[in-house]
Amino acid sequence: MSIKNNRLTNQDYEFNFADIHPPFETPDAALTEANRCLFCYDPPCMKACPTSINVPKFIKQIATYNDKGSAHTIFSSNIMGAGCSKVCPVEKLCEGACVYNLMHETPIHIAKLQRHSTEKAMKNQWQLFDRKPSTGKRVAIIGAGPAGLSCAHTLSREGVEVTIYEKEAKGGGLMTYGIAAYKVTPEFCEDEVNYITSIGGISIKYNHELGRDISIDELQRNYDAVYLAFGVGKARQLDIPGENLFGVTDAIKFIYDLRNNDYSEIAVGDKVAVIGMGMTAIDAATQAKRLGASEVHLVYRRTQEEMPCTEKELNIAKLDGCNIIWLAAPKEIIGDGENVSQLVCDVMELGAPDASGRRSPVETGQTFTLDVDMVIKAAGQMPFSEMVAGENLQNNNGKVSVQSKSKTSLDNVFAGGDCVNGGREVVDAVQAGKDGAAAILKTIISPDYIIESELKPTFNN
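Predicted structure:
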């Protein structure tokens, strides 16, 4: 057993990391699917979307050959609609709410239709929004991820000048650095960032980190408002013996390195254990398998009923040949010298429900051992507690505390996305950015200021 790179041929890597959700092969295929839609009154799919995309409207526009209008409808609610069409867990959102499910029929492929029109808009560089006249106001945003970009685009449309400070060398945040490469490529993420900023009035200062290169106090002096959208990123530690052995890494770093290098350069073990069962754990496990690992075990301390990932994501891991071990928790990592050689796990059982109704895992006293040469930790992410405290932000265990969706404890400083909620879906971050922009406009322009995204959508073609 060993950890090494270049396990596969270039052809293997290309095949393994090809688009897992390919688009419609022809325009006629998109039209056929669009015409399956029942165009429900009071549509449940729209209610299930955190950004309230008017799904029947954009599908009707596709069905009537109005792809540009369809893209406008989507982007009006979700400026990252193209990326979300690739990464959203639609089976528990819009497609999961489709009325066809009640008829025991295949739901409308909403994500695929959304991808059809949004990617066409990006490819053809359709400029679907005009900026309002300048308000003379300037806003600083920390983080060029989904929340930050959504806030920036909404503000720019309203005539506000926006400067985004991003600690990485590229924008996109989680989309660029934290999602499986077979779902969305770095090149697509770059194209999406460029498309969003092409409206004008948005500049991004890369390699600028809060607490290192800039401070909130400094930004407060130079801008009319500040929006914090720096997300989360620190991996939760297992706090078990052997965690510092060579071969132990966290899923965030593993995926980050994979997104920033050629696949052949990423070292992976022959026998890998991934701790956790969230989306990040699934992404790490499947990519380890696709990089050439012969065995990948997903270790989760609860049962399938409690898993954070969707069944669709779990099935991807199963189809890739990952082994699922339920009711198991890491106890100790054993090394052969300085290298990982085994993972010892406690056998768990579910105890009585707590106040929230969720049954907590408890040890049974039994253990088992896996022979592994790599352990990937995906047991959750931690907020940037030290940075938040250093900026004198009121917080809850490192998560920025807000009132009325986005107002922080500091004057004219707002926040949203993962740095507030601790980590949710990309689409939730997009909505948080819209909420933040609305709150900022009401503060720096007028308490009665209304933006288009706050208006109740109407269904028309």
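Summary: The mean pLDDT is 94.
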